[in-house]
Amino acid sequence: MKVENAVYPTAEGIRALGQDKSPTKIAMLNLLKFRDKAVYKDGRADNISGREAYMRYGNAMTKIVEREGGRILFTGRIAGLVIGEVEGMWDVAAIMEYPSRAAFQRIVTLPEVAEIGVHREAGLEGQLLIMTESI
What we know:
- The chain is α+β, with helices and mostly antiparallel strands.
- Helices cover 36% and strands 24% of the residues.
- It has helices at residues 11-19, 50-67, 101-108, 111-123, and strands at residues 26-34, 71-77, 92-98, 124-132.
- Strands 2-3-1-4 form a four-stranded antiparallel β-sheet.
- Helix 1 crosses helix 3 (101-108).
- The longest helix has 18 residues, at 50-67.
- The two termini are 24 Å apart.
């Protein structure tokens, strides 16, 4: 199994979510790997950790998601791997629930999300974002 962390989803993937009109709630499992030190593309001299930079994004994003009908279900530090094997472990797992695929697409493409995204990008080394739905 190939595992590749990324910072941004593909444009096609986001577009496809917006076209899906299913009213089914989804939960996004975020596996987050932070940079040791935040790296801002605009060159700002914030001397903070990647985790701190990401939390600037995460705290603001949680408020946006809640305002738009979603909610945070879980956030926790990854303490270890019990089954399987990966080269590098993620730092945090978070699960966010969204009203639908289309709602997720709409939320993540809001201008205010783009504005706070600088902190996400500065803080993340990479992540996996896994979409789940009830069975």
